[in-house]
TrEMBL record:
Residues 430-459 are annotated as: Disordered. The lineage of its organism: Bacteria, Bacillati, Actinomycetota, Actinomycetes, Kitasatosporales. It comes from Streptomyces aureus. Keywords: Membrane, Transmembrane, Transmembrane helix. The keyword Transmembrane applies. This is NAD-binding protein. The chain crosses the membrane at residues 169-192, 222-246. Residues 269-370 form the RCK N-terminal domain. Coiled coil: none annotated.
Length: 459
């Protein structure tokens, strides 16, 4: 039984279980009475597939309450909640949809010759695809970051363009105040014939609007005019500088001028859409030593505080905005991943990025729908990661007891990587009993789990 609030994911998981000898029932957002009615029947396993942790947790606890001890598979993003559910309900297997899709996204972002990259401690487990075959390799954790310097070095102009309005005002006003301070010192020494220490002192007094040099009263007329203009300009610049500093400290800034949360300008990956998938992908890239910048449209997105705690720079804006893409140095980026939950919005971002950077590597999170297929046939959008297909197979295999480490697509074949390092083409599980009545009389999960595990062991 599959309890779902996402039709595409539920349909994909049900289709895989159906091909692997299973009889599956889908319940889209059932109420308590409907769920109780179905659980009163013979049910071997329950899978809760939802993008919302609260919804998934509620259905999992309700299923356990109505039928204690039943095999449960539930998708949860929050690791704290997932660990607590696993500890409290021993018969529950907790999955993360992001853990299923992120290895495929990592491979497309960093090394298209691989079908998936899965971080494992200090290294990376990689599955290479070559001539229709797959092979497992173990890479060093920082090996994938070695190509970051292959991109052209960014200029000072690119760094300045990457800054926001407040940061630009801060830099510009600080530079202007520094120039005014230096000019005032030079005029004090050369025109007023002051000692350099007195000139510095008087210039600082003028810069802080305390007062000017006493010798200025006896200076030439042009100096007095220039000094007056300078003091008025300093008054305005000091106000701008102070306001910018206050804004930087009191505002909830997701980027910084320098440091860990500054916007990278070459050899980085741009992640558009800071949902669960975008956040986990950004965190994995950062762990591998790859510079990353995220783009999020919603200033109230739930993952923004988590990104801030992980020092992931986030720019608020629309990922399909040409000026924003240029600000993020898309031409010097290692790749752009559009991983929002809306496939159409992801395609719009990919098309805009393709217009700005025709040769850029673009990764698109999408589903196996007609819109994506038709768009790909018209022009090359980018590498498409089929989210429902990968996650559906991952959930189905876990429901049937196979427990793969990851699921990925290689040469249009859905494959799974198991903890022992074995790669299995899941097409070998797509067999049915010759007598349909035989399949109907057997248990949904018991027979299927044993068959799946046997197939995985012999393949």
């Amino acid at each position: 039984m599959i309890i779902e609030d996402d039709e595409a994911l539920g349909r994909s998981a049900a289709a895989h279980i159906g091909r692997w000898y299973g009889t599956v029932h889908r319940l889209p957002r059932p109420d308590d009475d409907t769920l109780r009615e179905h659980l009163d029947q013979s049910v071997d396993a329950v899978a809760v597939v939802s993008r919302d942790d609260i919804v998934a947790l509620r259905y999992a606890l309700l299923a356990e309450h109505l039928k204690p001890g039943i095999r449960l598979v539930v998708t949860l993003f929050d690791r704290t909640v997932a660990d607590e559910v696993s500890r409290t309900v021993p018969n529950c297997t907790v999955l993360s949809m992001t853990d299923a899709i992120v290895p495929s996204l990592l491979a497309e972002c960093l090394a298209p010759s691989y079908a998936m990259l899965q971080p494992d401690g200090g290294g990376v487990i990689a599955v290479r695809r070559e001539d229709g075959a797959t092979s497992v390799e173990h890479l060093h954790g920082r090996a994938l970051a070695a190509h970051a310097h292959d991109h052209p070095r960014a200029s000072f102009r690119a760094w300045l363009r990457s800054l926001g309005t407040s940061a630009k005002a801060l830099i510009a006003s600080l530079a202007a105040l520094s120039v005014a301070f230096s000019v005032d010192i030079a005029l004090g020494v050369l025109v007023l014939h002051e000692h350099w220490t007195d000139s510095v002192w008087n210039a600082a007094r003028a810069l802080t609007t305390i007062g000017s040099s006493p010798a200025a009263e006896h200076g030439p007329g042009w100096y007095k005019v220039l000094s007056a203009v300078s003091m008025l300009a300093v008054l305005v610049l000091a106000a701008i500088f102070t306001a910018s500093v206050v804004d930087r400290f009191t505002g909830h800034r997701m980027t910084s001028i320098l440091g860990a949360r500054s916007i990278p300008r070459r050899g980085h990956v741009i992640v558009v859409g800071l949902g669960q998938v975008g956040l986990r992908l950004s965190a994995r890239l950062k762990d591998l030593g790859i510079k990353v910048v995220a783009v999020e449209r919603n200033p109230q997105a739930a993952c923004l505080p988590l990104a801030r705690s992980l020092n992931i720079p986030v720019v608020l804006g629309r990922g399909g905005d040409r000026f924003l893409l240029e600000r993020l140095s898309v031409l010097r980026a290692r790749g752009l991943a559009a991983v929002g939950s809306d496939s159409l919005a992801n395609m719009a971002v990919a098309v805009a990025a393709r217009a700005v950077a025709p040769d850029q590597r673009i990764i698109l999170r999408a589903g196996s729908d007609e819109v994506t297929t038709d768009s790909q046939s018209l022009f090359r959008i980018g590498a498409v990661c089929d989210f429902p297909r990968i996650v559906g197979a991952f959930v189905a295999a876990s429901v049937l007891g196979a427990e793969p480490s990851s699921v990925f697509v290689a040469e249009d074949r859905t494959c799974a990587l198991f903890p022992d390092g074995q790669v299995v083409d899941l097409a070998i599980w797509d067999t049915r009993p010759t007598d349909p009545r035989q399949g109907a009389n057997e248990s949904e999960a018991g027979r299927t789990a044993s068959d799946v595990e046997a197939s995985a062991a012999t393949s």
